[in-house]
Amino acid sequence: MKLTGIIFGSVLAAIGLELFLMPHGIVVGGITGLSAIFALSTELRLGLFLFLLNLPFIVLQRKYSGNSVSLLTFFGVLIISLGTFLLHPFPALLNEPLAAALLGGLSLGFGIGLALRFGSYLDSAEKAVSNLPFTRWITPEGLVMLFNCLVLIIAGFHFGFEQAIYSVTAYLLAYESIKLCLSGFRFYNQVQIESYHCAHIQEALFHYLNRKAEFIKQNSLDGEPDQIQLKCHRWEVSRLKAIVLNCDPDSEILILP
After folding, report:
1. Which helix (H) or strand (E) holds 229?
2. From the CB of residue 127, how many other CB atoms can be counted at a distance below 10 Å?
3. Which of 122, 111, 106, 104 is nearest to 18 (CA)?
């Protein structure tokens, strides 16, 4: 079952790359985006760079995560690399770059997300760097985001501003598709907030998000903070956090599964 899911996800990601994004010079972030830049700048195939650039991170992943995870990742990377080789001779499915960015980003994101659900990291750098030692000045997520932004900036300078817009569009769609696939296609999250200013936060959430939060712990006599809980759309989570932290920077926010 795992291998079937990884194969399907890898092939779906390869379709997004070779039949939608690559023919229009659209680049996403990560090792996948860096591989696309090298492939578009040379006469070599995308699959070759996908395999070679992921290989060092798979070795690093094996050191920290064990053989099973690294083998599944190697299998997924091998399938997506072979998939892009086999799909390369076929023409693009769409002639409009914006439509290609939209559908390509979705196909790539759902493919990567599906492979992740079955234990394979098609873009192995993120998993590998998460095991490295970091300081409080930089987190693994921050380093990955910095690398993704750098890849998109390089692509923008290399292929032009218009292509950069398409690339950012495809990247954002791929990123959201991965999160959606990993969350099991749940669009809403339960959010629990702990603060000494829950009443103020409750009013702000209703005013700015039109979301009603309910107290689950109030007027505690032991000096502990109150707690409220609400349901919000997954795309509202970032805005919700900003509203809560603006009301109380010391509040704690827990996103429940």
Report:
1. strand 226-233
2. 22
3. 104
* b/e code 212-236 from CB counts within 10 Å (16+ = b): ebeeeeeeeeeeebbbbebebeeeb
- DSSP bridge pairs for 253: 193
pLDDT digits (tens, 9 = 90+) for 86-140: 999 999 999 999 999 999 999 999 999 899 888 888 887 766 666 665 545 666 6
Residue in 243, 33, 20 with CA at minimum distance from that of residue 144: 33
- For the chain, the residue count is 257
Query: Considering only CA atoms, which of 161, 162, 183 is closest in space to residue 117?
Result: 183
The tokens of 12 are what? 């779906």
How far apart CA 36 and CA 31 sit, in angstroms, is 8
Which alpha helices (H) appear in the chain, and where do they start and end?
A: 2-16, 30-41, 46-65, 67-87, 97-117, 125-129, 140-159, 161-182, 198-209, 237-247
Does the reported pTM lie above 0.90? no
Quote the DSSP letter at residue 119.
Answer: T
- Opening angle at CA 160, ends 54 and 147, nearest 5: 30
Q: What are φ and ψ of residue 250, in 5° steps?
A: -95, 5
